[in-house]
Amino acid sequence: MKAIHVPYRVRRTLVWMRRWRRTRGFGVHSPTDYHFIRYVINQHWPYYAYDTLKNERPDIDKKTRKVCKLYFRLANWLQPAETVLCQMPSTAYAQYIQAGCNQTHITDVDDTDNTPQAQLCAMTLNEETMPLIQQTLQQADDGTMIVINGIHRSRKNKKYWRQLRKQHNATLTFDVYYCGIILIRHKRTKQHYIVNY
Question: pTM score > 0.70 for this model?
Answer without folding.
Answer: yes
